[in-house]
Q: What sequence folds into this?
């Protein structure tokens, strides 16, 4: 059954449009299950009904005509319950409904399973039999597995507009990922094709067919020469049988094979990279389905050759176009900061990536620039999105493809409201961050980018609560040297002096890799990251500490923060290295007073070691993002579980309240530098809990300042007491929204559904 399942999925994936995919699917399933009927009903959200889209066994004229409401008939019951229904005598079921157009009165047995994608019901898959038959567990398991596999295919079809049935107006599709940078945008997709990824090449119509064909032939000839040279180099080191593989490659690249077929596809209206990808995918899917082991192995060869040719084609193909739409939504498998820089800032409206995370370099840059961004959108059908109109919601991690006029109008209003609010709040940004009853709540900023506007920020903040030193490391092609780092740090320290600047030592690992220092791990967030890496590489940490101390000469505003601390031994080791750096610089004639040192409280173990940590450091800084992630055992960058990640979870809020209380007892200043601090409702809670300062990305400052200036400290403390009594994130969010609405501050929060 597993082999049958694999082949059905391959054939469905290989179909050029949804109609062909559905036809293949129902025929293959009927044959595999040896049953009389297989039908597929698609849920149309526009009319809130299930539409018969394809069948083998029922009357074909019923396709596109028979519709059922959710809960109507047996098919509607499967959709309503979102669980399988297996009946030996379907007509006797109280929910059975007969449709004359289908001719299904002849069938007794019924097995239906829902097709669900990211908690969204897309349709129902049904098999029927004329004789009374209870489908066995293997049949049911097969159909459930098939439905789960087909969910992604159908979601792609919805997004790419390949739903062609007249019964399905609109065809709007929604994809969800990880909210990486807040904001909303309506625009046109520009797909960034990664190098040599056959599955991510966008469809484009060629402007010069002959030029595309010439490019193709040149790329193929380059690959032929590479393979010939490789064969010659290895001729004396491998057997004649292995050497024959190079000849097979040459034959595949010959005019009569790959070149001719791709050229035909170009003449049909596809540019060279897209034509190559189409042809290679088709050959690979065919070879992977055949019974012959030798031919199945050749699928990998064809794929490899395709990638080689594509790499040469892409060498002269700009990864982003020369001209961008007025409102460009840049979409790609992964988007680099370099690619980001190729788009004119005034035309860049949003970013969407299939990989990456909310803490990736490009996400950090996007937040600093105020560009709505969603990452981890794993099910996005990249090749078919180029030029599509979309709505991007960076607050909730959503992308709507081919949005309805109603949705565009709604988001247009929300975008206009956000712009108007930003303009209004701008007028009070130079006013103090102080409650109506006189409580001062210092606001600090998270930085790490060369273009952070220090001059305009300086008079509005109390300092830099988090300078991410890893960002310059990410941009470089090697570990920056001491002098190079010292110049970067000096710029930051001078720009904000005399305000304090908290510099976090190199925090890589997890989802922040350096291109020249990759870390491959099964569980990166539980692995080698933060202080664990730099203590294992003291030569890297020593250079960084010396550079920081050099940069702080004569300024006295440097503070050092140690990330990902798990136990006091790590702090002791880091402090010994700091003392050594001070001693070494002193021997070189550079006198450096020891700066204030703090630890990041982000590993839950530190909650129970505060007394010991307080004996060693000068301040605490809570990394609420990681603390939330570790307390809830949720990878916040995994879109499949991202909905479980919520910094307003009662356990997280209780932990935060305890940290504030314990820090007061220990007389140690404590700040928060995670996303909770940049949320107006979260900031009010943190202020009420007693945190000494809040640090956030610059775009979050106006809304947080506005909330603090309108809510008294007593009201914030009462809000904390009320909130800590609640026992679910939904209840907490609802209560916060209710309270801010009473205070006429709901407009400061992200838009709600």
A:
């Amino acid at each position: 059954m597993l082999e049958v399942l694999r082949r059905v999925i391959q054939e469905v994936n290989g179909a050029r449009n949804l109609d062909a995919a559905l036809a293949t699917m129902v025929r293959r399933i009927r044959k595999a299950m040896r049953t009389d009927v297989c039908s597929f009903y698609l849920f149309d959200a526009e009319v809130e009904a299930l539409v018969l889209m394809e069948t083998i066994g029922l009357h074909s004229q019923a396709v596109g005509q028979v519709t059922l409401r959710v809960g109507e008939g047996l098919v509607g019951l499967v959709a309503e319950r979102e669980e399988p229904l297996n009946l030996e005598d379907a007509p006797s079921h109280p929910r059975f409904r007969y449709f004359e157009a289908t001719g299904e009165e002849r069938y007794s047995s019924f097995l239906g399973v829902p097709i669900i994608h990211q908690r969204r019901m897309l349709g129902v898959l049904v098999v029927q039999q004329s004789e009374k038959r209870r489908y066995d567990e293997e049949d049911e398991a097969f159909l459930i597995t098939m439905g789960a596999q087909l969910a992604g295919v159908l979601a792609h079809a919805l997004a790419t507009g390949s739903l062609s049935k007249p019964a399905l107006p609109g065809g709007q599709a929604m994809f969800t990922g990880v909210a990486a940078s807040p904001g909303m945008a309506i625009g046109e997709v520009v797909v960034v094709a990664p190098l040599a990824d056959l599955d991510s090449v966008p469809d484009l119509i060629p402007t010069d067919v002959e030029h595309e064909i010439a490019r193709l032939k040149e790329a193929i000839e380059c690959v032929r020469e590479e393979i010939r040279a490789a064969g010659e180099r290895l001729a004396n080191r491998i057997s004649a049988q292995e050497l024959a593989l190079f000849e097979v490659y040459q034959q595949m690249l010959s005019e009569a094979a790959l070149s001719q077929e791709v050229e035909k596809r170009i003449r049909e209206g596809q540019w060279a990279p897209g034509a190559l990808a189409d042809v290679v995918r088709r050959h690979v899917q065919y070879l992977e389905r055949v019974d012959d082991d030798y031919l199945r192995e050749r699928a990998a060869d064809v794929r490899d050759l395709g990638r080689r040719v594509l790499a040469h084609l892409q060498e002269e193909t700009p990864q982003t176009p020369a001209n961008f739409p007025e409102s460009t939504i840049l979409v790609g498998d992964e988007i680099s900061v370099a690619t980001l820089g190729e788009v004119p800032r005034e035309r860049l409206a949003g970013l969407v990536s299939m990989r990456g995370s909310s803490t990736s370099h490009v996400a950090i840059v996007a937040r600093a620039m105020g560009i709505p961004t969603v990452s981890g959108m794993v099910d996005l059908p990249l090749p078919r999105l180029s030029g599509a109109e979309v709505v991007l919601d960076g607050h909730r991690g959503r992308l709507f493809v081919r949005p309805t006029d109603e949705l565009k109008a709604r988001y247009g209003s929300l975008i206009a409201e956000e712009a108007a609010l930003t303009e209004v709040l701008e007028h009070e940004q130079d006013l103090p961050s102080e409650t109506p009853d006189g409580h001062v709540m210092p606001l600090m900023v998270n930085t790490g980018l060369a273009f952070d506007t220090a001059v305009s920020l300086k008079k509005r903040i109390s300092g830099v609560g988090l300078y991410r030193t890893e960002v310059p490391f990410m941009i470089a092609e090697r570990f920056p040297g001491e002098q190079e780092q010292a110049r970067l740090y000096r710029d930051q320290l001078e720009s904000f002096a005399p305000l304090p600047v908290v510099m976090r030592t190199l925090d890589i690992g997890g989802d922040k890799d350096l291109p020249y220092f990759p870390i491959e791990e099964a569980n990166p967030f539980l692995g080698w990251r933060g202080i664990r890496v730099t203590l294992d590489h003291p030569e890297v940490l020593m250079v960084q500490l010396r550079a920081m101390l050099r940069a702080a000469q004569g300024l006295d505003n440097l503070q050092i923060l140690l990330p990902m601390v798990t136990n006091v031994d790590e702090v002791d080791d880091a402090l010994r290295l700091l003392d050594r750096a001070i001693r070494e610089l002193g021997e070189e004639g550079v006198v450096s007073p020891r700066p204030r040192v703090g630890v990041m409280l982000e590993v839950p173990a530190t909650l129970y070691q505060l007394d010991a940590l307080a004996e060693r450091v000068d301040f605490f800084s809570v990394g609420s993002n990681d603390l939330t992630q570790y307390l809830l055992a949720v990878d916040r960058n995994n879109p499949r579980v991202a909905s479980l990640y919520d910094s307003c979870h009662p356990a997280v809020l209780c932990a935060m309240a305890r940290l504030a209380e314990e820090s007061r007892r220990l007389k140690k200043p404590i700040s928060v530098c995670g996303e909770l601090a940049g949320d107006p409702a979260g900031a009010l809670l943190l202020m009420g809990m007693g945190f000494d300062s809040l640090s956030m990305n610059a775009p979050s400052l106006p809304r947080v300042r506005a909330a603090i200036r309108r809510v008294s400290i007593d009201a914030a403390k009462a809000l904390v007491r009320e909130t800590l009594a609640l026992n679910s994130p939904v209840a907490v969010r609802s209560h916060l929204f209710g309270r801010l609405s009473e205070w006429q501050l709901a407009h400061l929060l992200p838009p709600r559904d």
Remarks:
- Confidence is low (pLDDT under 50) at residues 163-170.
- Residues 209-234 form the longest helix (26 residues).
- The chain is about 45% helix and 15% strand.
- The first strand starts at residue 37 and ends at 44.
